Amino acid sequence: MARMLRRSAATFATLAALAGCAPPQEPPATPAAPPSSSTSSAPAAPATPPAAEAPSSSGYAGHGAESIKPEVLAKYAAPALPPALSRSIGTLFEVRAPGAGILSPDAKALYFTWTITGIRQLFRIDGAMRFPSQLTGGEDATVIVDMTPDGRTLVISRDRKGEEYPGLYLQDAKGGPLVEIQHKARVQTMHELITDDGKYLYFRANDIKPTSYAIYRYDIAAKKRELVFDQEGIWRLTDIGKDGRMLLGRDVGGNMTEFFEYDPATKKLTPVIGQGEREEHEAIFGVAPGEILVLTPKLGEYRRLYSLKGGKLTPVTPELKYDVESFEVDRARKRLYYQINEEGYSRLKVIDARTYKDIALPALPRADHVRFSSATPDGRYATLWLDPGNGPSVSYVLDWQAKKLTQWHAPSIPELDASKFAVATLESYPARDGTKIPMLVRRPANCEKPGGAAAATASAGEPCPVIVMFHGGPEGQARPGFSPRVQLLVDAGFIVAEPNVRGSDGYGRTWLHADDGAKRLDILTDIEDASKYIRANWGKNGRVPKVGIFGGSYGGYSTLVGMTMFAGAYDAGVSVVGISNLLTFLQNTAPYRRILRTSEYGDPDKDREVLLKLSPITYLDRVKAPLLIIQGATDPRVPAGESIQMHEALEAKKIPSELILFADEGHGAQKRDNQVLQYGHVVRFFRQHLRGERVD
């Protein structure tokens, strides 16, 4: 059974969807200080350690809602928004697109996830452009992850309050109650694959040890599970051969994997590729006997798909200056679908799964992204996901036999004119060492790019304020495509710029690893350089624009860095679930995250000094501008204590800051009402501090 491969997609896509932080949608009244004039490549550490360098002094330990006192949650609950602002934000959150979905084997029904109820739930549509039926409900985020080959049973993942400890369930394709496979507190139960005969479902879970993932086989008919593999490590199952051999990946870093073949009969584990290399690999069994398909940048700068036979890698895809970001062989083993990340834009390619010769796709509508979603077991039909860039995404079904493309559902855009939505343009700015940093920019209609006709003839007026929005990861990437969260900032009158600083994905292995460990000190200046460029080049009539900084997760960390280490570069900042202290973060994040994050940031014991130099809380004395901090209490990735200790430290120094805690959210707000509150306060805060407006 071949599966789509790329760990960032295959392993974390479900968690990102459940947590409401899937890309590209994710993140007081004092005069602004002038930009910092510092040009040093690495900021100097303070003479003494910060006050919040460890749990014993920071006052927090662990993660989850239980780590926060009820009175603290009550004190920092999100205030109500002014009605007019709430309505305007809420309208954009009604712009929703159904997920790409999974097509039934007979191509008569499409099953997909949709947020039309205010949170992700599962729907079925019985024919193209028909009215959908809702299959799941409640307050917990629920997504479809697979379907049995006969089309009778759906596999569903469900999370509670954004905790990212999802459970796995089955549901009859006609609807009805869910049948629990496994859902345990503080345990991640993740779907892996279903066998071609539909008898068994494989999943992994860290229920034996928090820092290790065991592989289980579940008998769908008998409703019984059995342990298949439980060696120490962060293991995942990517494929099963016809002879029963299993292809297992062991993650040894945030983007580093070793692959092994495992024989369940003999319990023999045989190395395949990546052992000791600390390099990125993805692998499934190929169609030819003895062949393994491997996606890796091992032999070049960019990820490329190879055929591995006899220890030799032979290229399958052409050599490009872009990454192959994901691939999948359909269950019928007829076609291999792969996506190319072309400067952030997703381009779909199809080749014969046996000969690797190109297969022409029919003409597709213009889109920023075209991605493969699923194929029917016989391979005749494929579901494609298209993001037009100026509106919500749309799903199409491709009939290979008829060479026909059919749209199956349409997005919701109530009371809005989609033709006025901003489209991202690809621009760049120079870092202080001359490196060209890619940057996606969306502008309001009245904020033309400097040098344009309107800008040249303008005789008066202030320059449009700018919000620099940093992505998460840190191995993430700002991508073009439609985002209602970015659009609401544009509608509020802000230019939104999203840099892909060094350390971002999508620009080759050198760029990706430029920020590993202590090297991060040398490239964090990319954060400050974005503001310097904007202030110097996006002014109007001799006036310099106000510039804010915004981001979630690692983007929240970037925001805190921009506001502390590079104080004065930005006039206001909003950090959502951001890391304030890398040392306390690594000590308190969920165990399964800690192992993967140390390879990216450093070891809490060996690299303690570097981690403190990299921590925003170390540079609190430099803060010059107001800061809004937003956090979910149940977050297992970035503990809520990271936000609370930052706010309390700012308060102690009488530095203006605001803190909002969501008691029922995790790594990003996923419930519709909470999303409106979160982004409403983001807009309110930036309007106040970048535009000087009072929002009542």
From TrEMBL:
Residues 481-691 form the Peptidase S9 prolyl oligopeptidase catalytic domain. It comes from the Bacteria. SUPFAM superfamilies: alpha/beta-Hydrolases, Peptidase/esterase 'gauge' domain. It holds the Pfam family Peptidase_S9. Residues 21-63 are annotated as: Disordered. One of its GO terms (molecular function) is serine-type endopeptidase activity. Keywords: Hydrolase, Protease, Serine protease, Signal. One of its GO terms (biological process) is proteolysis. Residues 24-34 have a biased composition (Pro residues). This is Peptidase S9 prolyl oligopeptidase catalytic domain-containing protein.
